[in-house]
Amino acid sequence: MTNPKHTTSKSPYSLGRTARRLGAAAAGGLVLFAAGALVVQTGAWHRFTTAVGATPAAPAPAASREAVEDAARQAMLAARAERKKDKEGKVAAPLQPTGPDGYFVPPTEAEMPDGPEGEAIRRGRDIFIDTPRHAQRYVGNSMACAQCHLDAGRRENAAPMWAAYVQYPKYRAKNNKVNTLEERINGCFNYSMNAQASEAGKAPPPGDDIYKDLMIYMYWLADGAPTGEEMRGGGYLKVKETDLGYDYQRGAKVFAQNCALCHGDDGQGRKDESGKLRFPPLWGPEAYNWGAGMARIDTAAGFIKANMPLGKPYSLSDQEAWDAAAYINSHERPKDPRQTGSIEEAREKFHKNEKSYYGKEVNGRILGVGVARAAGAGHGTATLAAPAKD
Length: 390
What we know:
Helix content: 40-55%
Distance between the termini: 70 Å
Number of strands: 6
Radius of gyration: 26 Å
């Protein structure tokens, strides 16, 4: 007669063995999930696909993206709350929240706190979105922070503020010194917003409340971001120069077909019915000056590739992005404020080896002389319409 106990202990379907199998499967699944999350969050997958020349994946549907991003932030906040209650140091620090494409997820407007801190964050947001209105005294053109840093500083591959905040203080070759975040913002006023042509004739002075409000807004956007890390999507996209190089004459056609609708045939932007500038000028006295990073063709090409035309990222080829950038930056704009001597001297000192038309002849004239605002030009507001995340 068969021993029932013996049969049960050897059966592959015994309760004990089934429980062990389920436990092993669950553990294996968790390991695979954690490994996959780690690969995405560290940017390893992005580096791999970039190395093999893969085309960026199509954006996830809006509803799915929003749900994943909200879940990532809620998971981080919940983990943070558990860690605060931990008295023995056993709870690990929460991972940074990332969306379905592996980019960092900043907080939403609904997460802004109340009280004095929240009021300062909102002031910083308003300055960021509409700089000519909320920092009027120090803005010498029609540019606003949000025109180069899209979605109010949230958009990946548009130099988002959540990535910028965690990088400072740091050394910058542009001025050959370690810069604080305040000094970096000061540079934006001097170059991107041409503060030299403003009412004050300069950027905000050190310690001004404008810096404090902008920095607390950036600090809030960086909630959950790792200090000192080069974050994926944290700057402008790097687009390798094509075999054909860049050409402003080819770029004129790309501009007419893809850019003029918003920025105008003359590149001076477009206003809404109230007279408020909705899309920014790309050259001329109301645009960024020759010292701005966007005046470099490679920087502009990366921005264009990942973000333009607005609402249609990655729709232009690399060649089209390079050529459009060349065309935009083949026009005169305000003078580089660092230029105190000749254009040749300034090019050698500040623009050497950069991909720029500064100090070069285009259409029969040397660029870099600069163009100034007409006397009495107003300090109008300028905002950039931004669609919801793709």
